[in-house]
Structures are given as C-alpha cells and as structure tokens.
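Notes, p. 3: input format for complexes.
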Amino acid sequence: MGQTSESSGSSNSSLAAAALRADSRIVEARRLIAEAVAEHSRGIQKVQAADPDRSDSYEKLLSRLADTRGGPPFWPYLSAGLGQGPYVELADGSIKLDFIGGIGVHGAGHSHPAMIDAALDAALEDTVMQGNLQQHPPSIEMSERLIQLACVGGAALDHCLLSTSGAMANENALKIALHHKFPADRIIAFDNAFAGRSLAMAALTDRPTYRMGLPLALNVDYLPFRDPANPERSTRWAVDELHRLLNRHPGRYAGFWAEPIAGEGGYYPGSHEFFKALCEPLREAGVPIIFDEVQSFSRTSKPYAFQHYGLDEFADIVTVGKITQVCATLYGEAFKPKGPILSQTFTGSSSSIATGLKMLDLLDSGECFGSRGQNVTRHEYFAEQLASLSRKYPKLVSGPFGEGMMIAFTPGDGSVDQAKRLMMTMYEVGLLGFVCGANPTRIRFLPPPATTTSEHIDDAVALLETSLLQFAKQID
Ligand SMILES: Cc1ncc(COP(=O)(O)O)c(C=O)c1O
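Output follows (476 residues plus pyridoxal-5'-phosphate):
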C-alpha cells in the first residue's frame, strides 16, 4: 500500500516518498523482516505452559502495571510481542490460543505477515499520527473503502470520519444526530447497551457501575432487546415501549442508537423482523437511526451486521472500530453538520490506517462473507461443537449463542462468579475467551475471521473441555 505516486496524485514524476518505498534497500529490509518473523513465530502453534524461570520477572511486571494503572488488570496478560494465527506468546513464556483477540481486534490473528508489512510501510511515513491538519492518501482510501462496503445494499452513507476509539466514533455519531435534530436531546437505546467509556457513552451504556459517581451527560431511554426464546412477543413488547416513549416525549428524540448484535450485553443477535418493526415507526417519527458496529463489523455474512439483517434503508449513521484498527463514523449527506462540531488532532496512527486497509483486504481474501461464507460456516462448525459439549455436560455449558464470528455459551449457573472462574481456568489451561452479559453472564469468543481454521476450533474445544473438567471440581 503506502503513499505511491499513484495514490498521491496523477503526475508522472515520482515522489521522493514513493522512491523511498521502491528503494531496493527498503524492499530487501522488508523481505528480511518478513523472513525473520516467519522463522521466529514458527514454533508458536500450540498451547504451552508458562516458563517457571520467568515467573518472578512476570510477577514484577504485573505489579508494576498494577502500580501505574492504579489497580491490577482484569487478567494477567502481558504479551511478549509475537504470535502466529490465533496463538500468542506471553512474556511469561506461555502460549495461549487467543479466541478473544483484545475483544475482536486481531481479525487476522497475531503477527500476520501482511499486517506487519503494512505497519512497516506506515513506519516509513513522515509522521506517526494522522489528524485533522495532517491527512494522507491512505486515510482517504480507508474512508472510501468503508463507505463503499457500507453502500453495497443501498444504504445512504456518504461520508466517513476516522477516529482513534470506538467511544470517539460513537461520540461523533451522537453529535451528528443531536446537531441534526437540535433542540431534541433524548436518545433511545437498548437494555444492556454498551457504547464505550467516554462521559456521554457512560450515560448511554446500561451498566450502573460504569457511570458510578459520574454526571449523566445524556438523556437516555431504554427498550428491551429481542429475546431469542420469544422473538415475536419480545418484538411486540419493544415496539409498544417505543410508541410509549415517542408519545411521552414527542419531538424530543435525536437518535436511536443500537448494536445490531448486543455485544458486551451478552451476545444476543437482532433480526430483520425485530429491527424493521422498530425502525419503521422511528423513521415515521423522524428519529435518526445509529448502528454501532464497533464489535459486530466483519463478523456476520456481510461486512456490516446491519446488512446481514437487511436494514440498509434504515442506516443513517454507523460506527465501526476494533477489527478495523482505526475507528470511524459513517453518515449520510442529509446529516452533514452545519458547523465545525467535528474535529480531532489525531484521527488515527499511520500504522492503524495502513493495517486497517490490509485487514479489509484479508477479510475479503479470507472469503469471510456470503450466505455460505467462512463466518457462517465456521459459526456452524463451532456452534455444533459447543452444542455437543452442552449435551455432554448439561450442568456446565448452555448454548451456544451469538451470530457468525461472535459466539458465546453460558457456563454453570450463569452467575458472574462462575463465569469468571471458568474464564480464569481457561486462561490457565491456555484458551482465551472473555465474559459478557449479566443474568446470565456468558463467555464469548471472537475468533479471528480472516484466519481461523477448523483445526483452531478443534483445539479451542479440546482446551475448553479440559477447563470444564477442572471447573466442575472447583464448583462441586
Ligand atoms: C459495541 C461497542 N461500541 C463501542 C465500544 C467502545 O470502543 P472503544 O473501547 O474502542 O472505545 C465497544 C467496545 O467494546 C463496543 O463493543
């Protein structure tokens, strides 16, 4: 990729930056780096226990981390800086099978050669970070690619703003909607929503502990989400609640904000019928519809989950993040702000933009999408194995739940304590998954869509079974 003379303009004369990238020393250096990475990561292909000789130094690192961040991390993960596919080496010498990937960030696994190459290309740039006053051609390309993918089914998403976090992408989305509907100042979201950790997103996120001691920066009303056990009844309930809200606060709603698949809330899929039943009255009431795809992007049969559910006509504003490396807010021409309400010193690192572009290529070449694409067929394969664990250990596993490459199960009695206990047992055994939801609390997996194989899934299921047998003894 990089800033070639083609991507930077139409002149025939070569740019110095393009000449640098074409320099045989650079080409050879990149080749040698790729060769060395391949050689050194070759052994990272199955789970391995920590090296006891590293135990003290690892503990010291963890305690330094706890000191600097003001508390211990959720789990003792410190990467060594190398991996292969879903396997990652930690600084204690252990190798884990990473089926959570920093919550969905590692879409091609660890140390993917194409991602490293893209990052090296970005490292040659004049600046580490791109931003409002310093944009480069790959930023344009990233925005154009996200727009083009979003519009395939007819969604009217003309513009794209890059940003450095999912929370900031959502901030921009809400600013666009609030500005468009001023003076309307209320937002509709779902029970159990998670939108990020900024002040406004803490108000939107439906977790009282996450806004503990914080002022409410937004007025939010909540609807019940789709219940897979009772799809029709839960849809009727949500629609009735929506009408109640629209009647209670006429003209006061500036936006409906929704994750098409509830992520942190517990991996509850939406559906075409559910969202259509809500989006039609919202349209009629003139309430902008925002889909948060920060976790769901690239994990279903289509790049965007709103496309997977056939909701293209309703997508007014859409946010993405995580797997795209650089986050973004897409919106239609009708929502273009009339004043300078959107800007940032940093839109993303040069490296996150280059690797984000490469990730889109890898998702495409990995044949992730389509009604029988890898996301769908791998889900079926994984789900069948989880279902078989559930049949074998009905007291330990219920499920599976989720959609595509967002897959979860409920361990034991569904309590937070038991879910955390199993998650940590899995961690010790070598399988990384992470909790989500409350009542019940589940364990979710976000396998890398671009590189997961059935062998990786077999490995994960074997490690899960070992963990379940240990977990059974702990809760006995
Ligand atoms: C659906 C959703 N939206 C927004 C966010 C916030 O993203 P970030 O942590 O990059 O700010 C997350 C993060 O988990 C998310 O799952």
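The pocket of pyridoxal-5'-phosphate is lined by residues 103, 165-167, 170, 194-196, 259, 263-264, 292, 294-295, 321 (CB under 6 Å).
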